[in-house]
Structure formats: C-alpha cells, structure tokens
Amino acid sequence: MAVSARHPRRTFLGATAAVTAAGAVPFFPSTRRAFANEAATDRPLVGCIGVGSMGTGDAHGHAQFGDVVAVCDVDSRHAERAKHDDKIGKGKADAYGDYRRVLDRPDIDVVSIVTPDHWHVKIAIEALQAGKHVFCQKPLSLTLEENRLVRAAAEKHPDKVFFIGTQQRSDRDRFMRAVNMVQKGLLGPIRKVTVGINGSPTGGPFQVAEAPKELDWNMWQGQALAVPYREKRCHYEFRWWYEYSGGKFTDWGAHHVDIAQWALREDAKGKGPVKIDGADAKHPVPFKDGYPERDDSYNTSHDFAVTCTFPSGVEMVVTSRGDNGILFEGEKGKLFVNRGKITGAPVEEAWDKDAFADADVVTLYKGKPFEGHKNNFYRCIREGGLPVSDVYSHVIAMNTCHLTAIAARLGRAITWDPVGETITGDSQAAAFMARAPRSGYEIPRV
C-alpha cells in the first residue's frame, strides 16, 4: 500500500499506522529522505519536552523532519529560548511548563523527551498511551523495573515508533564497523571486552539555595524524594546523583555497554550477564547498605572496575580507568573503538575488506538504508519497522548498566537471571530493582 504525498499529513500518518499495525510495511523508495522535503501539510507535528542543552540540540534535529509546534520545560527560561529559536519554535510554537499539555494535544504526532533520566519512562509511557511516536534520550530508565514497564508499553503500542538517542548505533565507520567485525567472527571467539566510560566527577558539599523563580523545582524532582534545592543537583549536574541517574554507569554506559552487547549478540530479551562483581568500586561519599550517608555532594561512583560475566564465560569489564571506548579481545586479535578512532590489527590490515558491504550495513540497520540517526527515526515512522536504536535492545543494555551500578553501590558481586530478569539469592540487592515513587508521580503500569 502506498500513500500519496498529496494526502493531508494526518491522513498519511493514520494510513501508515494502520498498515504497520496490521503487520505489513508500506513501500517507499529507500533513497527518499523521510519527511524532510515533504510539503508542509505532510510533515509531522513535533512536541519537544525538555529543551535544555541536549534538548535544544535534539530539537534542532527534529525540526529538519517535522514542524515543532510545542516546547516544554519546567525551567521557563529554557522553554522561552526554544520557542524563539529560529531553528526550533521560530516564535510560533506554544511554550508549556507541564509536559501533559503537550501530550493532550491531538495534533502532535511525535514527542521528543530530553528530560533528566528519572522522568524518561513516565513521560514515554504516557506519550505512547496518548498515541505519539516517541524519541527519548538515553539512558532510558532509572531502575530495572522501569525497563520492564516501558518495554510492556512499547509492546502494547507496536504501531508507534519508539526510538532511543544512542547515536553511536549510526556511526558506520567506527562503531558499526567494530560490531560487524565481531559478529562476523573476524577476531575469533571473544575472550574479554573492556568498556571504558570514565568516572563521575566529585564535588561538594553544595549549599542549599533558593530555587530560581523560573524553575518549578517541585516538578523537576518528580518521582524522587523532595529535598531542598542545590544548584548542583539540577539541570546537567543531576547525572552525578543516584537519586536521578546512575552516574557514568548509565550516562556513558548507555552508549558503550550498548555497543559491546550489540557486538556480542547479547542485546536481545533473555540475554545479558549472569554475574556482576562490583567489589572494586569507590564512591566520593560514605555509603551504608548501598545508600549515600551525605546529601550535599555528588554520590555516583568515580573510580570502578565492575566485571560482568556472560553465560558464555566472556567477561566485560566496565571501568573508569584507561581510555574511554571499547576494547574487544579475541583469539585472533584486538580491536579498540571510540568516538574518535578505531584501531588494532583488524583495522590496519583491513580484515573486513570483503566483509563490510552495504548489505551488512542494511542488516545492522534492521533492513533500512544507512543514514543519519534521526533520519532513521522518521523513516520508520513513515515506513514502519524497528529503528536501529530500538527500545527492546536498549532495555537489555540498560539492565546491565543498572546492575553495574547496584553491584558498585553494594561493593560486592550479585547474580542476575537474564531470562527471568531478576536479581537472585540476594534480597538486599533485589530491593534496588525498583524504587517507590513520590505520591502523585507514579508510572503507569500497562
């Protein structure tokens, strides 16, 4: 079934969704840039929730493919800046302080979620329930339980594209090439993987202060316990507090652990490590039973080497030490890759000269042509199918990321059943799988 570009945007999207839900994929020439050059009546309408530093960059990207008609941020300074940005709202978008105002709008087709991590899953699930396609920045979740909840919601709404902002999955010359070499067996059986993600910064004590009048501090905290405002708890710095994120375990882990498990084919449901040893981990403040004893300083781990063991016996060490990047060690050779380079004998000797054809790239792209990261998102909205950075594989990577953080917080080894998705034989560790939300900020259970 093909849909004419002359059809109104809503008619087009509705027809595409119906075809996708029915299990078929509408045909469009693969060389056609999804949405970018369509008539104004055929471009999706986008709502951007969270328009701080990263949110602004993502909003610029979305505006290439759709029309941003709403921006939202609990900091009105961010919302107003995005509203009047010539590459985002162009002075015409509506600005909101409450994301629910965006989800309530039936005209909005796509939502971009670039909030602090502890808000991602709640907004994403509610967006799916509101009939929106979802772009969500990494790391997707705050807890292991949230992984289950958001995956269940995605499964219930298969006609909606759910895309994760892990842009390394669209780096053909470095990360995709490394994944292809490992999956093709060019390095031989993999013995060990070292994932360098650096350590969280240290800092504090930070003083309590009055929240800026433009910031809704209560709303910003969301499901987390309400605490006095400290500037270094908010905006970009939230990453270094376990209350809102997982430090580098989830910040960079969402990128590099994802690539490592993709290469190892450990990124599908039922896959993942069975043992995670966090004995070699330090934190910048004292911890007791996995919780920081101070509330005025960064508390995520700054120095660690957590070893994850897969059922095959392959060890993956997630560490703050050494270079940022991924080192694959196989029986035939070693391969290192990060955002700046890909090195090792397999690259210098071009082992993959005849093993990295366009067909291999299309396979990694789940049947789609290789193109920019957001291009893939909007192509999938138009054509159906899973995006290169899908919610299902990302949940598996995030399971590992959260497990490394839990093991590091407790300072010992824990065991994981990847099929049942539960921490076994350790009730204290298992208690970290979920977190009771503050009243009024509960996450929908699908």
Distance between the termini: 31 Å
Structural class: alpha/beta
β-strand number: 18
Averaged pLDDT = 92
CATH topology of the largest domain: Dihydrodipicolinate Reductase, domain 2
Largest sheet entry:
10 strands, mixed
* Shape-level CATH architecture of the largest domain: 2-Layer Sandwich
Number of separate domains: 2
Envelope shape: globular
Query: What's the CATH first level of the largest domain?
Result: Alpha Beta
Q: What low-confidence regions span 5 or more consecutive residues with pLDDT below 50?
A: 1-8, 14-38
Beta-strand residue fraction: 15-25%
Specify the number of helices.
15
CATH superfamily of the largest domain: Dihydrodipicolinate Reductase, domain 2
Characterization of this structure:
The structure is a single chain. With 446 residues, the protein is α/β, with parallel strands linked by helices. The protein has two domains: 170 residues, Rossmann fold; 235 residues, Dihydrodipicolinate Reductase, domain 2, CATH 3.30.360.10. It has 15 helices and 18 strands. The strands form three sheets. Strands 7, 8, 9, 12, 13, 14, 15, 16, 17 and 18 form a ten-stranded mixed sheet that branches. β15 and β16 form a beta hairpin. α5 packs parallel to α6 and α10 packs across α14. The longest helix is centred in the last third of the chain and has 20 residues. The chain is globular and about 60 Å long. 50% of the residues are buried. The N terminus is likely disordered.
